[in-house]
Amino acid sequence: MTRRYYCPVELTLDVVGGRWKPVILAHLKEGVHRYGELRRRMPGISEKMLTQQLRDLEADGLVTRETFDERPPRVEYRLTGDGAALGPALQALYDWGERRAKATGVEFTPLPDAP
Question: d(Cα 3, Cα 102) in Å, to the nearest integer?
Answer without folding.
Answer: 39
